[in-house]
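Input chain follows. Return C-alpha coordinates only.
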Amino acid sequence: MNKSLKAIGQVELTPTATVSQVVEAIGKASTLQEQQDRVRQAIIRVMAIVFGIGFALLFQTDTLQIRAPLSATAQATWQATLGPTYSHVVGLALSGLAASAGSSFWHDQSARLRQLKSVSEAAGELTGK
Protein backbone atom coordinates (compact mmCIF):
# COMPACT_ATOMS: atom_id res chain seq x y z
CA MET A 1 0.00 0.00 0.00
CA ASN A 2 2.85 2.38 0.77
CA LYS A 3 4.24 1.80 -2.73
CA SER A 4 0.87 2.57 -4.30
CA LEU A 5 0.41 5.76 -2.29
CA LYS A 6 3.89 6.89 -3.15
CA ALA A 7 3.34 6.21 -6.85
CA ILE A 8 -0.07 7.90 -6.98
CA GLY A 9 0.28 10.84 -4.70
CA GLN A 10 3.90 11.01 -3.74
CA VAL A 11 2.78 10.28 -0.19
CA GLU A 12 4.77 7.95 2.02
CA LEU A 13 3.67 6.32 5.26
CA THR A 14 5.88 5.35 8.11
CA PRO A 15 5.66 1.78 9.47
CA THR A 16 4.09 3.14 12.66
CA ALA A 17 1.38 5.19 10.90
CA THR A 18 -1.97 5.43 12.66
CA VAL A 19 -5.32 4.83 10.99
CA SER A 20 -5.97 8.57 10.78
CA GLN A 21 -2.60 9.11 9.11
CA VAL A 22 -3.39 6.38 6.59
CA VAL A 23 -6.79 7.94 5.86
CA GLU A 24 -5.19 11.37 5.48
CA ALA A 25 -2.52 9.98 3.16
CA ILE A 26 -5.14 8.25 1.02
CA GLY A 27 -7.15 11.47 0.88
CA LYS A 28 -4.12 13.47 -0.25
CA ALA A 29 -3.23 10.86 -2.86
CA SER A 30 -6.81 10.78 -4.16
CA THR A 31 -6.98 14.58 -4.39
CA LEU A 32 -3.67 14.73 -6.24
CA GLN A 33 -4.79 11.95 -8.60
CA GLU A 34 -8.06 13.80 -9.36
CA GLN A 35 -6.15 17.01 -10.11
CA GLN A 36 -3.79 15.15 -12.43
CA ASP A 37 -6.76 13.56 -14.22
CA ARG A 38 -8.41 16.97 -14.74
CA VAL A 39 -5.18 18.37 -16.19
CA ARG A 40 -4.79 15.32 -18.45
CA GLN A 41 -8.40 15.67 -19.68
CA ALA A 42 -7.92 19.39 -20.35
CA ILE A 43 -4.78 18.68 -22.36
CA ILE A 44 -6.59 16.02 -24.39
CA ARG A 45 -9.51 18.40 -25.08
CA VAL A 46 -7.17 21.17 -26.23
CA MET A 47 -5.30 18.72 -28.46
CA ALA A 48 -8.60 17.50 -29.95
CA ILE A 49 -9.63 21.09 -30.71
CA VAL A 50 -6.26 21.89 -32.29
CA PHE A 51 -6.34 18.73 -34.42
CA GLY A 52 -9.99 19.33 -35.35
CA ILE A 53 -9.28 22.86 -36.53
CA GLY A 54 -6.15 21.62 -38.28
CA PHE A 55 -8.13 19.02 -40.21
CA ALA A 56 -10.81 21.61 -41.05
CA LEU A 57 -8.07 23.84 -42.46
CA LEU A 58 -6.43 20.97 -44.31
CA PHE A 59 -9.67 19.84 -45.95
CA GLN A 60 -11.20 23.35 -46.16
CA THR A 61 -14.37 22.28 -44.36
CA ASP A 62 -16.28 25.51 -43.75
CA THR A 63 -19.46 24.94 -41.73
CA LEU A 64 -20.90 28.34 -42.59
CA GLN A 65 -20.38 27.71 -46.30
CA ILE A 66 -21.90 24.23 -46.04
CA ARG A 67 -24.98 25.65 -44.30
CA ALA A 68 -25.35 28.52 -46.79
CA PRO A 69 -27.88 26.76 -49.07
CA LEU A 70 -30.13 26.14 -46.06
CA SER A 71 -30.51 29.83 -45.28
CA ALA A 72 -29.55 32.56 -47.73
CA THR A 73 -30.48 35.22 -45.16
CA ALA A 74 -28.11 33.75 -42.55
CA GLN A 75 -25.33 33.51 -45.14
CA ALA A 76 -25.82 37.15 -46.15
CA THR A 77 -25.77 38.18 -42.49
CA TRP A 78 -22.52 36.27 -41.83
CA GLN A 79 -20.91 37.77 -44.92
CA ALA A 80 -22.04 41.31 -44.05
CA THR A 81 -21.10 41.04 -40.38
CA LEU A 82 -17.79 39.23 -40.64
CA GLY A 83 -16.71 39.81 -44.20
CA PRO A 84 -15.80 36.95 -46.52
CA THR A 85 -12.37 36.23 -45.04
CA TYR A 86 -13.43 36.22 -41.39
CA SER A 87 -16.60 34.32 -42.27
CA HIS A 88 -14.44 31.58 -43.79
CA VAL A 89 -12.13 31.53 -40.74
CA VAL A 90 -15.11 31.31 -38.36
CA GLY A 91 -16.60 28.53 -40.50
CA LEU A 92 -13.34 26.57 -40.35
CA ALA A 93 -13.09 27.08 -36.59
CA LEU A 94 -16.68 25.87 -36.12
CA SER A 95 -15.93 22.82 -38.25
CA GLY A 96 -12.85 22.08 -36.15
CA LEU A 97 -14.75 22.47 -32.89
CA ALA A 98 -17.51 20.20 -34.19
CA ALA A 99 -14.97 17.59 -35.24
CA SER A 100 -13.23 17.76 -31.88
CA ALA A 101 -16.46 16.86 -30.09
CA GLY A 102 -15.92 13.27 -31.19
CA SER A 103 -18.09 10.54 -32.60
CA SER A 104 -19.88 9.73 -29.34
CA PHE A 105 -21.16 13.31 -29.14
CA TRP A 106 -22.47 13.19 -32.72
CA HIS A 107 -23.98 9.74 -32.18
CA ASP A 108 -25.88 11.10 -29.17
CA GLN A 109 -27.07 14.08 -31.23
CA SER A 110 -28.32 11.86 -34.05
CA ALA A 111 -30.14 9.66 -31.51
CA ARG A 112 -31.87 12.77 -30.16
CA LEU A 113 -32.88 13.78 -33.67
CA ARG A 114 -34.30 10.30 -34.36
CA GLN A 115 -36.22 10.47 -31.08
CA LEU A 116 -37.54 13.93 -31.95
CA LYS A 117 -38.63 12.65 -35.36
CA SER A 118 -40.53 9.73 -33.85
CA VAL A 119 -42.20 12.02 -31.30
CA SER A 120 -43.26 14.46 -34.02
CA GLU A 121 -44.61 11.59 -36.14
CA ALA A 122 -46.58 10.28 -33.15
CA ALA A 123 -47.92 13.79 -32.49
CA GLY A 124 -48.88 14.07 -36.15
CA GLU A 125 -50.80 10.78 -35.97
CA LEU A 126 -52.66 11.96 -32.86
CA THR A 127 -53.63 15.28 -34.41
CA GLY A 128 -54.49 13.69 -37.75
CA LYS A 129 -51.87 15.60 -39.78
